[in-house]
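Fig. S4 source data, part A: sequence.
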Amino acid sequence: MSELNMTFGEFIVAKRRELNMPAVRLAEALGISAVYMCDIEKDRKSSVSKEFLDTLTAILKFSEAEAELMYDLAALAQNGISADLPEYIMEHKVVRTALRTAQKKDIPDEKWSKFISNLKRDEDD
């Protein structure tokens, strides 16, 4: 997981600085205290909601790839699964079955990459 080589807090700090946004202004936009924002950026607070992450995505103008990385980093910090996935997974039994089957068979990344490529190709058709 090479793209996950930073913490959630480090990622937020980097993106905020790219926009030249002070932490206090980000905290205000999120409706939280500057102290709480500092705790998030220093990785002392890791439990954040999907709504919080969605708002953060909008404020910091994340691309789709950046938002996905942010969800993954937040999930790692919480020892959980990315906040944008549980509802979809739980709504689709076939997805749960596919994930469990892949886990049992220890499907390698190259097979997953091929599967994803096929899905994207189907989107274009």
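Fig. S4 source data, part B ends here. The radius of gyration is 17 Å.
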